[in-house]
Amino acid sequence: MRPGWPLVSSVLAREHVMASTFMNLSAEHREHIDREVEQWLSRMTLEEKVGQMTQFSSDRDTTGPSLKEDVEEEIKAGRVGSVFNAFDADFTRRLQQQAVEHTRLGIPLLFGYDVIHGFRTIFPIPLAQAASFDMDAIEAASRIAAAEASAAGLHWAFTPMVDITRDPRWGRVMEGAGEDTLLGCRVARAQVRGLQGSAPDEVDTVAACVKHFAGYGAAEAGRDYNTVDMSEWRLRSVYLPPFQAAIDEGCASLMTAFNSLNGVPASCNGWLLEQVLRQEWGFEGLVVTDYTAIMELVHHGVAADTRQAGQKAVLAGVDMAMQDGIFLEHLAGLVEAGTVSLERIDMAVRRILRVKAALGLLDDPYRYSDPAREQALLLAPAHRLAARELAEKACVLLRNEPCVLPFSNDIRRMAVIGPLAQDAAAMLGPWHGNGHAEDAVSLHDGLALRLGEAVTLDYCCGVPLESDVSSADDIEAAAALARTSDVVVLALGEDNSMSGEAASRARIGLPGRQMALARAVIATGTPCAVVTFSGRPLVLSDLDELPCAILHAWWPGIEAGHALARLLMGDAGPSGRLPMTFPRDEGQIPIHYNAFSTGRPLDPEEKYTSKYLDMPNTPLYPFGHGLTYGQIVYQHRALSSRCIRASESLVVSVTVANTGAHEATEVVQLYLRGPAGDVVRPVRELIDFKRITLVPGGAETVCFVIEAASLRYEDAMGNQRLDDGEYHLYVGGRSDTSDAITFHFNKQD
Ligand code: BGC
Predict the structure, then answer these.
(1) Residue bearing the CA closest to ligand 1, atom 6
(2) Which of 55, 290, 296, 504 to mutate to test the pocket of ligand 1 (most atoms within 8 A of CB)?
């Protein structure tokens, strides 16, 4: 560690998170587990140890090349410690029997799976969940995901994905919480709490796995798996805190990233895995690689062959190899050659067995594989209800001009037009694991149920989702339908295969001829609400110029249609806020609200300032943006004091009123801008937020407490700074809110 770097980053210090223990075990429980693990370890041969450090995929479901054809034989030979992509109570029980009954020691397998946003009850994609700014709802969704997954025999979820990203071209933005570090930390914590529950040995919990360590979200040019090269300062202050937050919540495990970071691939990066993770943060959980990431060290050009790749990975701190079998092939030989110590192997196995012990598997290997629980829990009505409510909270009303939404209950004829209107399967998003298309409700079907027989609901696809050769006739037919309707809902967006892993896009607008369809339909003058679907921020500048409402739905999950129908008809109000900036144009990327100050801030009148010649600097929709059906007014911003010292705190209060005719949920956001210091600072940073619901005519005073800890940051050398001077606070409904209130900070008491 370089001298200055603080053990807890300033973002987390603000959040008062520092009390982690491995899986939140009590000291007594931990001692018991450690004794149990040492007993197992003392009986194991080197080959059995290496087997524990090996994970293979079942052929049920894979996210990459499948290398092992006969996993079951490997299990019986004691050459596997964990299997992923195998689930359901009966199948996992059968595989578990092979490990328990056929191997010499009978050590149970750990079953892992990508439970990304639900197991069978599919919730909105993680980026959409982050848009809810509702940590309780996110925790509840993760709790349900864990209950369902564990009932299907799973022990371990490869979640949360906490990669901060400022490049919407990257397809995996859909798996994370977006561009902001504070929001990313809070979402990570909520997900770990939900997955692991309060006691890891409760049978309805799973071990969490924070990923991908680290920097994956900053892949150059937004192209998946690409190089990452950034200063340690930026890495530590922006990209690493959500990992530390997850670990502070007791996260059981961590997955390495595919990318190289400042020249060293993350899966053999000893600085990341030993120094930062173990020494500085004290992480005691298990480190698994991403899919075949050790093998890829050869492609990265840092290992001449797979033996050297295995050696580099294990010495850097990897405990388990996912899918490439390289540990199985080479570790014993490396130990015998004296290149890798037995102590290093023992430490890895200890960490793996510790997770198995904490889950109660060493006492009862079959406790998770319970067909009756599986039957009762999967898709339980309460789970579907939670999925619908979170989908409602995740949708963001980007625009409502003219005021089209909510639709009146007096409408008698509605047209639903567009390539995504009837697509239920797409609603699950690109990576829904065990989600089933037949469980999902399309926008059209949700509206049909909500509107009933009193309203005529017509449908027209208009244009195919991607093609450029659609005949004008379909567009004409869609426009003709719009003309005879009271209102139109246009369902536009990406195909759901256009985001997720290995799904980067250079252009992130509406594909194909969808804009032509929108123009023709909106030109009819019939009030139109466009529902946009995607796994990332889109460039919607052309659409934004047309008179319409735009409700961004991301991928809302199985309850999509019901949630959207309720939002469109005003049974529920939109309350989501953007967790990522929507650019005007791809040329602005990377774009994020908390950019650093420059020496030549934008001045439209001055040539030599930081700007584009052909485009404003501002995005189309900034971070934090989202409208409601109410009329939100911020009144009476006040500070309890204009000056604070190190030992003091101050309270910022703001009265938020709803002067509109509909109930509204507002996400009140607090941003900070620091005074002159030794290093440049972001133009502003989110430091807190609160969701409040206001009835028509209602008002509430929201208070935020600011302490000296809220003002700390790291400088480029890693020193924690706390500057005297004038601070600016911005309280409002989005990141570009104006009207600063200022206070002075003075360290001297
Ligand atoms: C992804 C991981 C995932 C793993 C296992 C990889 O391709 O990058 O996020 O957990 O596959 O499915």
Answers:
(1) 291
(2) 290
Query: In this predicted structure, which of 6-10, 267-271, 572-576, 631-635 has the lowest mean pLDDT?
Result: 6-10
Neighbours of 704 (CB within 10 A): 19
> Cβ(621)–Cβ(582) under 8 Å?
yes
Quick one: pLDDT at residue 3? 47
DSSP string, 662-716: S-EEEEEEEEEE--S-SS--BS-EEEEEEEEEE-TT-EEEEEEEEEGGGG-EE-T
**Among all chains, which residue has been given the structure tokens 């579907």?**
384
The predicted pLDDT at position 18 comes to 56
Quick one: pLDDT band at residue 7, thresholds 50, 70, 90? low
Cα 269 from Cα 274, distance rounded (Å): 8
pLDDT (tens digit per residue) in 598-657: 999 999 999 999 999 999 999 999 999 999 999 999 998 999 999 999 889 999 999 999
Query: Would you call 19 helix, strand, or coil by DSSP?
Result: coil
DSSP output for 487-505: EEEEEEE--GGGSSTT---
- Nearest partner of 173 among 235, 129, 229, judged by Cα: 129
Burial 113-138, CB ≥16 within 10 A → b, else e: bbbbbbbbbbbbbbbbbbbbbbbebb
Q: Which residue has the tokens 């595919």?
A: 258
Options 290, 324, 439, 495, the catalytic residue: 290
Pairing state between β 649-658 and 664-673: unpaired
- Determine which residue's CA is closest to atom 8 belonging to ligand 1: 290
What does DSSP assign to residue 273? I
Which residues contact ligand 1 via a Cβ below 6 A?
63-64, 114, 158, 211, 290-291, 501
- For 691-703, letters b (16+ CB in 10 Å) and e give bbebeeeeeeebe
Q: Are 272 and 261 in contact (CB under 8 A)?
A: yes
468 belongs to the catalytic site: no
Residues 200-239 have pLDDT tens digits of: 889 999 999 999 999 999 999 999 999 999 999 999 999 9
Residue with tokens 């679907």: 533
pLDDT, residue 1, reads 41
**Per-residue pLDDT tens digits for 685-725:** 999 999 999 999 999 999 999 998 889 998 888 888 899 99
Q: How far apart are CA 20 and CA 210, in angstroms?
A: 15
Q: How far is ligand 1, taken at its centre, from the CA of residue 276, in Å?
A: 23
Reply yes or no: is the peptide bond before residue 200 cis, omega within 30 of 0.
no
- Interval 104-122 mean pLDDT: 98
Read off the pLDDT of each residue in 459-467 and give the average, rounded to a whole number: 92
pLDDT tens for 42-72 read: 999 999 999 999 999 998 765 665 556 688 9
Instruction: Kindly tell me if the per-residue pLDDT of 15 is higher than 70.
Output: no
Residues 6+ away with beta carbon under 8 Å from 554: 124, 125, 127, 128, 131, 174, 394, 395, 429, 533, 534, 535
Average pLDDT, the chain: 95
Q: From the CA of 323, give the closest atom in ligand 1.
A: 5
Q: Are 474 and 463 spatial neighbours (Cβ–Cβ below 8 Å)? A: yes
Q: Per the confidence metrics, is the pTM higher than 0.85?
A: yes
Rg (CA), the chain: 26
**Closest residue by CA, ligand 1 atom 12:** 63
Order of strands across the sheet with 699-707?
632-639, 649-658, 699-707
